[in-house]
Design brief:
Helix 4 (137-143) packs across helix 5 (194-209). Helix content is 21%, strand content 24%. The protein is built from 7 helices and 16 strands. It is α+β, with helices and mostly antiparallel strands. The longest helix is centred in the last third of the chain and has 16 residues, at 194-209. A hairpin with a 6-residue loop joins strand 9 and strand 10 (181-182). Strands 1, 2, 3, 5, 13, 15 and 16 form a 7-stranded mixed sheet that branches. A 4-stranded antiparallel sheet has the order 4-14-6-12.
């Protein structure tokens, strides 16, 4: 597993993800039904996920998201079925993780602990390097302009009064033509000009066309390059009977700037956006 992860980190290629199977998940309690239940504090999967994250960079949390928790339990929460975040159960379209943030994760991992009852919920993965050949040169040029803004995800805005703030302007596509990168959230990234909005629609269509649906089984760990692929989730129906779908998520950051390190209250938790907004 170590060699697979290191090879992936050295060259993410076109796919932008790798899938590991047979990761031990250990004994599990009932699937939580509330936020931050901490039912897996001290669980063996913490060590496994930390090892994988630290092979790629450094396991990292965000002070604004789940109070800086390093391992995120992804499961439905009653009453939040329609929220476009990990507590929902409706379809969650393509997105770069923490699209608004100047220090977005370089990698994220999703470990399946328990499938949904029907075993149909899929983690949807789509690569910018597969999608861009389906666009015109004019559309790609439009997406490379620093003219887009991305709203803070709802998971970062739970305690913000009033409208959600946004980050930008920023390009959606950047980097070399033969190895491009992407910063995009189909729910939150917006363009003000008609040409920009048309290019976003074309990109969404291309990503859908090249998408791969991964129906993760218990013990499957998918690791994603957050700059090469966007990901999402298909819809499923929770029953709140203790056997609902349950994933664990981690973030990994390759390098943290010194100024950010000096502002961190925990060695692995990045400062709140109110402290660093506009720095990058």
């Amino acid at each position: 597993m170590r060699k697979t992860v290191l090879d992936f980190g050295a060259d993410e290629g076109t796919d932008g993800f790798c899938l590991l199977r047979g990761v031990p998940v250990g004994e599990l309690p009932k699937t939580p039904q509330a936020h931050e239940a901490h039912v897996l504090d001290g669980h063996p999967t913490n060590g496994t996920l930390m090892l994988v994250a630290d092979l790629l960079g450094s396991l990292t949390g965000y002070q604004d998201e789940k109070s800086g928790t390093l391992f995120h339990d992804v499961h439905p929460v009653r009453g939040e079925e329609t929220r476009i975040e990990n507590s929902g159960s409706v379809a969650f379209d393509f997105h770069t993780e923490n699209v608004h943030h100047p220090l977005r994760p370089d990698y994220l991992g999703l470990l399946c602990l328990r499938q949904d009852h029907e075993r149909i919920a899929a983690t949807r993965v789509s690569s910018v390097r597969d999608a861009l050949p389906l666009l015109t040169d004019e559309q790609v040029a439009e997406l490379r302009k620093p003219q887009f803004h991305s709203l803070y995800p709802t998971s970062f805005a739970r305690n913000i009064a009033g409208p959600r703030p946004s980050a930008g302007p920023h390009p959606v596509i950047f980097g070399p033509a033969d190895r491009p990168f992407m910063r995009f959230n189909s729910h939150n990234t917006q363009g003000s000009e008609p040409e920009a909005r048309a290019a976003l629609r074309a990109l969404t269509g291309a990503l859908e066309e090249v998408c791969r649906d991964l129906v993760l089984a218990p013990g499957d760990l998918v690791v994603l390059d957050n700059h090469v692929v966007v990901h999402g989730r298909s819809a499923f129906t929770p029953r709140y009977d203790g056997r609902d779908r349950w994933l664990r998520r981690f973030y990994s950051l390759r390098n943290t700037p010194l100024w950010a390190q000096r502002m961190m209250w925990h060695p692995r938790v990045l400062p709140a956006m109110t402290e660093i907004r506009g720095v990058l």
